[in-house]
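Input chain follows. Return structure tokens only.
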Amino acid sequence: MTGAAPALLVGRDAELRGLLLAVTRPPAVVMVEGEAGIGKSRLVSTAVNRLRRSRRTVLTGRCRQGRTPFPYGPVLDALRQTAGALPARERLSPVIGALSGHLPELAGDLPIAPPALGDPRAERHRLFRAAHALLSALAPAVLVVEDLHWADEGTRDLLRFLSDPMPTGLALVLTYRRHELPVAGLPLGHALRRSPGTSGGVVALGPLTAEGVRELARALLGREEVSPAFAAKLLERTAGIPLVVEEVLDTLRATPGEDSEGEDGEVDALDRLPVPPFLREVTADLLAGLSPAGLAVTHAAAVLHVPAEETLLAEVCARPEPDVARGLREALAAGVLREYDDGRYGFRHAPARQAAYETIPGPDRRAAHTRALTALAQAVPMPLAELSFHARHAGDLDAWQRYGSAAADRAAELGDIPGAIETLGGMLADPRLPRTGRSDLMLRFSGLAIGGVSHGRVTRLLRRLLADPQLPRSVRGEVRLNLGVLTCNQAGAAAAGRQEVLSALADLDDQPVPLARGLALLAVPYWGDEPLARHVEWMDRAERLVKACDSPELTATVQANKVTLAMSVGDPGAFALAERLPGPGEPTVIRRQTARAYANLCDAATSLGRYADAERFAREGTRIAEETGAPYPSYLVEVTSVRLDWLTGRWEGLRERALAIVERTSEAPLIAVDARLVLGLLALATGEWEEAREHLYATGLRDPDSGFQPLLATASAGLIDLYLAREALDTALTEVEEAVARLRRKGVWVWGDRLVPSAVTALLSAGRREDASALTADFAEGVENRDSPAARVALLLARGALAHAEGGYGTAVDLLSRARAVLEAMPQPYGVARAMEEEARSLIALGDRPAATRTLTDAAGRFTELGAAHDAARCRRTLRTIGAGVLLPRGRRRQNALSQRESEVARLVALGRTNGEIAEVLFLSPRTVETHVAKVLRKLGVRSRTEVVLPGESLRQGHGEPRPE
């Protein structure tokens, strides 16, 4: 591979800063080292472009590969670029004339050549002095010599001469590949002697990180975002080498059909890509320079696919050990192979291995795979995945199926569900897999996939397998059932997933175990618009089937869904059912069902307002999921904890956590629903209207038939509040009608704890008191005898709003005070503050101004402490309207630190809001906002509002004594 630079420089900010700092403080010698394609040239050229703008003379020369070296060629090539930069001839040292014969292009600008000395050594010394003097005359100057590993000895001697002592004002930048240096560790052939005052050092470039690869992919593909899964696969395939990343992505774009399935399909496409032509040519060039022994070892490494020890390489290439050792040394010296830390040898990245593998004739490849199969079968423990790989390529299909199946079993036993899915999926995707045993592999593959997280490639493969007309009916039904579960859970397409399950039931009428599983899935009421009674009916059928089957795993599956059903609807008996879940000592497959049950219980208890129980279920679910290697329950618990933290007032860093979850779960959008909801509610609390609307809709409201119904109700409540805040009453009422209709159809009223109070407020705002009263009555009936503190609070809030609208202000104060007490006990700090604000509204109507002032001031402080800037500002506006003094929190602040109000303004400025929009959110006059913005810019030391970044947590102030606004 040549030292060609990638088109973009990313992930090298620190290295670029270090290089620029060194060369702008001459004299300096900077070594830039790294393997081929790592970006040395790009780093240097980026620095050079900046240096040229600073009136520095920059000269560049490059050593060449494979040519008869011309002494001092790279330095002389660089010196030819001095035309126009040289001082007048009479100001140059006469010794510089020694360069005239070597630089005929500059003969008119250089002093007259001195007479010949007749001694080659003296002539050489004078030439070196001339180069030194010329560079001194050009200062400040930067001399760049690239690819020093290919330099001739004369060039190395000249560079050593220039560096000791260095011309004042000269910076010397040398790039090289460390492993290709003629003398290991010595770029100039001997130790470099830096004269006193010479700075510099080594800038070592390593592979890009995962984020660096992702950033480079975004830039090269011209996209705002690429999925983490795609970036991870790209890193795996390219080893983070920028040039290889560029070549692979160029090939991806140029390969027809490989981007037809979006980024998820591109993850698979990366493994199917041909070797980029440039990398193929480079590999061929490297292989052509190897001896037969070196080529044999390289071919053996290509066949083995993964880095291997020398003894295994010897067995696969079938050559004497001395030949193998000599060939291995040669391949390492040529940069074809590299040594890994644990004494194994292999290729640097996948395209190089693939290119070398394709140069092996077919019969030789098959023979090498057979030798690898024989050698690896003696290992203890047997490397089953590698044995499966070599059996397949050796043409031993029975051994391939046997080893592959065993490898998947071992991975599943060790808790590596993704590894097991990958192994089985690779076998099933290959048309050469014998039909015998194929059905069993399909069932295992689809069953394991339910417990994974990534679903895209699995879903596509299952749909293709289901299209086989020769597939047995019972297998088709069970695989379709698993596909339905996968589509519902991981893909978040509940409508399509439930249709798959319903279709599967028709093929399972004589298969009681999978039939019961399908019915138990349908019994969970979170999806679809069937009434609760239908879900109960499905659960009853599943339980009857369980009694007729002797299947502990089925029993655990149905039991997990039954307790989920009970807890999700607030059934008081749910906690007793939870106590009977399978405990320690049960087989792993059963304990995975327990982990899933606890994850579901955590989610349901959070919705009910049973937060302590939710945290207990979370701990148990996470522990069992980790012990049994079931990633999906762990992810569910993690995302539910984000919603739980929002409810319980733990907002510190919550936005960042939620954003990280959304990013990580791009392939499983349903898992991110909680995070999206929290992001929307946080944005609503700070008055970030567009962000709030975007996130709330992303919970599933664009396709409510596939949405997670409990969270859709809460998201709709958030939208109603948003529309009311923006005085868009008609839009709020439309959301009320649609959301309440969904709630009525399902009949699980405990899910309306946020929706009903917001809907009642909207209806009362529209003067529809009877509708508000009817909704409250229906809600009261629906939550009667349900174990849900959140629903009890919601009923008190709705009744309080009705009492206020009917003029019963004292009753409203009592109801809202009771709601506040329940919320305090749960605890739900944001809910407490909202209840207090409503209570104060009724106190104002009663004429109790002192009590209203105390309550509103307390509410404003609670909102501020949480970070709910818009809510706090609304309370302060109400305080101003009743003539009460408004106090803002004040802590000990550093000089020029932003006040609480200024932090609120800064955040909205960073979001691109105009002064008028900020005034609307914070209930201030535009002129007041203008004053605050000016203070923000001054304190942050920026000139324009476009330079203000999101303050985030760093701008939140401590709360001490209050101060007047």
